[in-house]
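U., I forgot to send this yesterday:
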Amino acid sequence: MRASVFTAAASAAAVALCSGVSGFVFAPPLAAKRAGVPTTGKASPCASTAPRQRWTSSLKMAADEFDGDAVMASAQERMDKSVESVRLNLETLRTGRANPKILDRVVVECYGAETPLNQVASVKTTSATALLVESYDPTILADIAAAIQEADLGLTPNNDGTVIRLNMPPVTEDRRKELAKEAKGLGEEGKVAIRNIRREAVDTVKKAEKAKNLGKDQSKDAQDAIQKLTDKTTKTIDEKVAAKEKDILKV
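Result:
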C-alpha cells in the first residue's frame, strides 16, 4: 500500500502514537493529518520527552516502503564489525612484549592448504618476552616454523622438534615508527569501510525519498542519523589507533 492510501485502522494507529512514543514520527501525510500528528520529522508535541535513541517509522509500513530501523540496524552491525576487525588487526602488531595475538595473521601451508596458525597450534606466553608454540600435529612443526619465519614479524623460531620457542627481540626506534605507521594504515582501512557503509545507507534513504516512500524532512533526519553513527564509529577507530600507537612508541 502506498503512503497516500490509508485505512481507518492506520489513522487510529497514528492517533495511538500520542500515548508516550518518543522520537521521530514518520506518519504518512493523510493519516497524520487525520490524527493531528506532525509530518515534519521532528518530535511530536505529544511525544515523550525521554531522550530519543533512534529515528524510526512509528507506523507499520508495507513491504515496499522504507524501513528506517532495518537500514540503521544494518549500518550499525556492519560498522561494529569493521571496528572489531581493526581491533583484531592492531593486536597483531608487535610492541616488544610477548603477545600470542601477533601470530594470528600467520598462515601455515600444510595438508595441501593454507591454514591459520591458530587452527593448527596453540600459542602461550612463557615470559614477558617469550612465546611457546605447540603444534596439534608434531609432523607439521617444521611447516609452522617456516610460516613464522616468512611472516616478516622480526621473529626467529627455535624448533626443538617438540615445540617452537619465540623470543621477542628489542624493537628499535625505527621499527617502532614503522609499526606506528602500520597501525595508522589499519585504522584508515577501517574508516574507508565505515564510509562505504555510510554511502550505501544514505543511498538507500535517497532512493526511498525518490520513490516517494519517504518525505524530504524524514530523509534529511535519516541521513543526519547515519552521519552521526558514522562520526561516532570513526572516532572509536581513531581512539583505538591512538592507543596502539602510544603502546608501540613507548620504550
